[in-house]
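Request: How about a record?
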Amino acid sequence: MIHQLDKIALPIVQKNAGFVLKRIADSYMIIFRDPPAALRTCVELQRALERHNVTVAEDQRLLVGCGIGYGPCLKLGDDDIYGVEVNHAAKLGEDTARGNEILLTPAAMEAAGAAVEGVTFEEVEGKHRKGGPAFLYYRAQYGIAVAPGHSEHVAKDEPPRTLDPDVPPQVTEDRKSGKKKPPPKKKVRR
């Protein structure tokens, strides 16, 4: 199915002057010089996948969630990029968006929004930041229904996610003592 996704997605990315910086499993990190081109690519990709999905069995359908950010970043080498908006876009696309969903940071919506015909935006309030306001992001409305499933603004049996890298993950409770404890740290190999 990854090969099928490549066959559909890569020509659309190329047509809109996107550059696939890296791919990890079924996730792409794509950079664009033009914010409207990023949004246009996501809309065209979702529409192409919708056309594909009506021709295949349910277990062969391809569903993609997209996250778009816009702002200063630092590109190191040929396959890595860093920045606050990069982190927000990755969180929106990988952790928050459901199939057929396109989510944008406020900066991306402002930079790309009005330039793509037929796309409107719905403001979504994410989880409140520690000691501050909730992180706002935008859901692009472009004529295809969002696939049911996992999303921070839909899932009720899971704690909401945060886009703020300074907010620690959900604190859990020790079953024996009843005391609150942070989740275990992930081991990082270097």
Observations:
- Residues 35-53 form the longest helix (19 residues).
- Residues 2-181 form a domain with the Alpha-Beta Plaits fold (CATH 3.30.70.1230).
- The CA atoms of residues 55 and 61 lie 9 Å apart.
- The chain is about 30% helix and 25% strand.
